[in-house]
Amino acid sequence: MAERTELLEAFGLQHRIASHVGGELVAGQGASVELVDPVQGEVWAAYADAGPGVVAQAMTAAEAGFRAWQGLTASARGLAMWQVGHAVRARLEELALLETLTSGKPIRDTRAEVLKVAEMFEYYAGWCDKLLGDVIPVPTSHLNYTRLEPFGTVVQLTPWNAPVFTAGWQIAPAIAAGNAVVLKPSELTPVSSLALVRIAEDAGLPKGLVNVLAGLGPTTGEAAVTHAATRLVVFVGSPATGSLIAGAAARNTVPSILELGGKSANIVFADADLDRASLGAQAAVWSGAGQSCVAGSRLLVERPVLDELTARLGRAAGHLVLGAPAEPATQIGPIISRQQWQTVDRMVREAEAEGARIAAGGRHPGGSLERGFFYAPTLVDAVRPEMAIAQEEVFGPVLAVMPFDSEAEAVALANATRFGLAGAVWTRDVGRAHRVAAAVRAGTFWVNSYKTINVMSPFGGFGRSGYGRSSGREALMAYTQTKSVWVETAADPAPGFGYAG
Asked: What torsion, rounded to 10 degrees, do the Cα atoms 423, 427, 428, 434 define?
């Protein structure tokens, strides 16, 4: 596609896709990795897996970038980050379209996500000179104070469902806290992360402060996680992979932050505004083709309004616009890959075999979209809590509907999963809203809303959805270590432990 080629040229990536290390593109040393257009189902580019050699170069570059970053005042670091936010805003359309054409996400979504990337850098820019320690009133003659210090080199592994958004979401707090970053995006979607870092360096970030590895998880990712220079590991992705990564980091006594999957419950009571609840349920799971960790993929409906809400959603599913992601009217784009499409379809077929009913969708839309990895917005009802469709993350546009008869049953169903990333309740009863928000085990919970997030607010999960937070003040603290400093102030201090000089 000529437009994609032009965008690659605009970001200095026209000749090759490679790792960005110390301000330069560095070719990989491993196997060829193909990039497939999910709209056409065809290979559009290939690059060489970075491998351990390039990882070692990235670590060396990060150490140099860290020293340069630490050489600036906190205020200067904040100004540099603010300039990155401004630069991202200036290239919003280019970066959003690049994301759309390389990941298959609709342009209406990528514009919003790139704007949030700018907001991330601007928000954390203001924190750079506000990382304050404390003075502890210890019962001795010492002045005891604390310092918040960076870890050093942070390895971040990000997923394919929101590449540029997740890159910004992770990079901004890490460097605001003073760290350097080695980022490995998904091998399926490395391009927008490469473009973002090139924008950031052009805006004034030191070269080497943020490096991007284009490569595979078992080779490049593992080499980065286990490298001797790694001081903190951050992973966003599946629980199975996250547990392996956390284990590898722990064996090197390196802490980790995990943002993993979800099977979030969207609870609708009979007194809810069904117009709003219906729209919220659609946005919760069908936007982004359901490829979202916070997708409200379990819809729990109080029995008196079950039939009405299910009927509304079934009609809505047939009117949503699937199509080319770059078209402004497109609401739902393709699934990222053939393998993921097959996973989604397999889970729908298994649910049907277990007795669930496909009330809408459950198929490829066909027609002019036949070559791409599209999946029709799918509504599955008659779902039982023990079914896989109600327990496991589908990561596709599939909504599983289950009824309940009481508030207690709704909460029990919501908590009947190992995940705990997000959830929501729709009701006009203020007391009930607060009770349910308190009772459901989830890191983020909405009342009469869904999927609203902001960089100012902490985001992360409970249980199998991971630990640590990736936004707000909490994320900043997660990227720092606390040092306690003791200064003796007495003119003639008593000898320690009773010893005489």
From this structure: -40
Half-sphere exposure of 318 (CA within 13 A, CB side): 7
Any residues with CB less than 8 A from the CB of 484 and at least 6 apart, and which?
136, 144, 145, 146
Question: What is the crossing angle of helices 107-125 and 92-103, to 10°?
Answer: 130
Domains 2-260+461-484 and 265-447 equal at CATH topology level: no
Q: Is the torsion defined by CA of 289, 291, 292, 295 positive or negative?
A: positive
What CATH number is given for 2-260+461-484 in this structure? 3.40.605.10
Domain residue spans of the chain: 2-260+461-484, 265-447
| Half-sphere exposure of residue 1: CA atoms within 13 angstroms, side-chain side | 18
* pLDDT attached to residue 14: 72
pLDDT digits (tens, 9 = 90+) for 397-440: 999 999 999 999 999 999 999 999 999 999 999 999 999 999 99
Token pair 């994609």: residue: 4
Fold of 265-447: Aldehyde Dehydrogenase; Chain A, domain 2 (3.40.309)
Structural tokens at position 350: 């298994």
Q: Give percent of the chain with pLDDT exceeding 90.
A: 96
The pTM (predicted TM-score) of the whole model is: 0.95
CA torsion 449→340→400→355, rounded to 10°? 180
Between the alpha carbon of residue 341 and those of residues 41, 80, 216, 338, 399, the distances in Å are 11, 41, 20, 5, 15
Catalytic site residues? 259, 293
